[in-house]
Target: D-alanyl-D-alanine dipeptidase
Amino acid sequence: MALVEITPEKHGVLLDMKYATSDNFTGEPVYSQPHCYLHEEAEGLLCHAIEIADKLGYRFRIFDAFRPSEAQWKLWNHTPDPKFLADPRRGSPHSRGAAIDLTLVDCEGQDLDMGTGFDAFTPLSHHGNMEVSLNAQKNRILLMGIMTTANWDFYRNEWWHYQLFNARRLPTFSDSALPESMM
Model:
């Protein structure tokens, strides 16, 4: 299998899988189980990013990673906005296990201020938005620096979203590809 499970024990990350809760833009759970998977290539880049963040005194809190195609349809049917969601007919980098949504946390486990929450579908979420506080701008640049140094690409509309370069070269996966269903 090309998907690898990301766990706090193996990767030293915090998991807050938003789509397994009602704390997401749909207001209801999309996943029945809060599992976190990435394509094996993306998992390797995440491990590199984890090493960089650790040397700087930070850890990651992951909000979403692999998203089964069935979940992408649920999100799209709720909010069909191509500025913030990939049309499931094209396939999402998330549905390829090639994207991750995350933030940085300090040594005490507190999220750094990024100016908006996860999945805030507004221009305030865009990289380089000068309307968020100076501290939030610095934190976004720190996150972007760590992730791009680890060879991740960023999505300009979402400070939390990183993906493999040329992610669409990978196939999409449905929930049936997992050892344990997320849906």
In short: Strands lie at 3-5, 14-15, 37-39, 59-64, 99-105, 153-154, 161-163.
